[in-house]
């Protein structure tokens, strides 16, 4: 390829980057503008959806890109929430400073869980992580940890106030803070998964023997994916705890892990943007189901879930991507 052709290719890539960033900037601007049009409760719901979206993004990295099925990510969400609650209530640490601590703690737990995952796969790994989700709430109630976790009573934390120079309510500030954190994490995930590490994840998922023959360290890739996934989910748990202002063992039961997995599948297993669609589904659809039928909301929720999977088997983001590809 000639020098002129290379220069034209570089120019074309550089010209395409701002255009590619424009839709993301528009979406962020619209989401930020909602701060001034929605009620405090509606902003609380969106803040919760943002936290769940970050947790589901962790599952996208683990399951969608490396093929490791986890039904226990609610445990990492709980660990992140408790780290933030303990630091804020006992040690008076600022809420924003608890996020990196939760990230590191959950990454370590994810790394430790990643080692036994090397010998397991498929349904066996799913069952192992499910056991973690079942056991953790009981461990949080154990007398040896009660002084830290508050036992069955849990821990109450205070919702952070906005900076004095901002004329915002606590709900508005927490929503914008969570949105900013999510934007950074989604950009980092996009760069990670579209780079060399992301290609290694996909190679290990699709052709492990070929990946190993190419020199990819499968053990390092799998354990690293678990650590990164747990890191994201831990930060999500921290944001969720700050929004709810309360943590208790029964808040992090098995249903939370199942709900996160449902959000992963509904949004699109291998899509980054699908994490947001999945989060919106698990936050708002149960409310819609309860409004439709007070007597059997779970039946309505199940019917809606079946209908969504029937119409969009590739998930919301996957289906939208295919439709846009056909139009172009």
From TrEMBL:
Coiled coil: none annotated. GO terms for molecular function: branched-chain amino acid transmembrane transporter activity. CDD domains: TM_PBP1_LivM_like (cd06581). InterPro entries: ABC_transp_permease, LivM-like. This is Innermembrane translocator. It is a multi-pass membrane protein. Keywords: Cell membrane, Membrane, Transmembrane, Transmembrane helix. Its main location: membrane. Pfam families: BPD_transp_2. GO terms for cellular component: plasma membrane. It is found in: Cell membrane. The chain crosses the membrane at residues 21-43, 49-67, 74-91, 97-115, 122-140, 173-193, 224-248, 254-287, 299-325.
